[in-house]
Design goal:
- Helices cover 70% and strands 0% of the residues.
- By secondary structure, the protein is mainly α.
- 46% of the residues are buried.
Length: 306
């Protein structure tokens, strides 16, 4: 139980570092001077010290929503597969529960954008709802497919089963699911080519448009939620689609797990450097590919057994 709680605390602590690492790597690849890896923690500290200003048009929803955005994500952290063998984990939580909690966080994130009454906030919220409606069914199908290959619908137990006895006979289905989930990782975290978290052009914003009117502690909570959400998706990808290292001694297993998280961060950075943001009406094409690969994974598993 102690190792279980320490792993969750470690994931929360490392979350800002992963996003800062992506920014620093992108700047390095673009031949720019990279920002310090501790910049995420500095920004969080600055936001906590800033004055919190709320629009006169905003209601109590704006004051409560940032806490409700972060809360479901913190709950999901307790349902992730273990990072080391012998650690406690919740074995019975399935894809529907995790996807539902992530969708609940997204719903509360859309509320401040609508509550402020600004044109850009409402536009960002509508775009987020549009993207989320395509992401959620694909995620349920993908995680469900992997869970079936692992022999257990519980995500935690599926991660353990994959690490201890990988189903090599279902490699085709596994690869289809991995492609689908990585697309969802990029889309749900607002990364290029679906969204650009570093843009300040209002007409192209999705995530940033919803939080234009937030500052101080509320903005710190939203930024923390964004980093925790990336850690959740990266941890799920590392546990379900890179299932190695779990059987090692726990210090080494945790080190391998962290290495997989940074490997995923490197992949995201490389994609962002080598691709441009898609126009909004082309985003469904990308997410449609994720849905198709998720269906292919299920069909290949059930019909062909591959």
């Amino acid at each position: 139980m102690i190792l279980y709680l320490l792993t969750i605390a470690f994931l929360i602590a490392i979350a800002p570092l992963l996003l800062t690492f992506i920014k620093a790597l992108k700047m390095r690849l673009l031949f720019k001077r990279p920002l310090p890896l501790l910049q995420g923690y500095r920004d969080f500290s600055k936001l906590l010290k800033k004055e919190t200003i709320i629009s006169e048009e905003a209601s109590a929803i704006t004051r409560v929503a940032p806490f409700l955005v972060l809360s479901p994500l913190l709950v999901v952290l307790f349902f992730l597969p273990p990072a080391a063998q012998g650690a406690f984990y919740v074995s019975f939580v399935d894809a529907f529960t995790i996807t539902g909690l992530l969708a609940l966080s997204t719903f509360f994130l859309m509320l401040p954008g609508l509550d402020a009454g600004s044109s850009f906030g409402g536009m960002g919220s509508s775009r987020e709802a549009f993207i989320a409606a395509l992401v959620e069914p694909a995620m349920v199908l993908t995680v469900f497919s992997v869970s079936m290959m692992a022999g257990d619908l519980g995500v935690g137990q599926a991660g353990v089963n994959l690490a201890t006895s990988f189903p090599k006979e279902h490699m085709a289905s596994f690869l289809f699911a991995a492609i689908s989930f990585f697309i969802l990782l990029v889309a749900e975290n607002g990364r290029v080519p679906v969204d650009n978290p570093e843009t300040h052009l209002e007409l192209t914003m999705v995530h940033e448009a919803m939080i234009l009117d937030l500052t101080g502690v509320y903005l710190a909570l939203i930024e923390s939620a964004a980093s925790v959400k990336f850690v959740i998706f990266a941890s799920l990808f590392a546990s379900l689609f890179l299932p190695f290292g779990l059987t090692l001694a726990w210090p080494l297993a945790l080190l391998v797990f962290v290495g997989k998280l940074f490997l995923i961060a490197i992949a995201v950075a490389l994609i962002e450097v080598n691709s441009a943001k898609l126009r909004l009406f082309k985003v469904p094409n990308l997410l449609g590919i994720a849905i198709v690969f998720a269906f292919l994974s299920l069909i290949t598993f059930y019909v062909l057994g591959a």
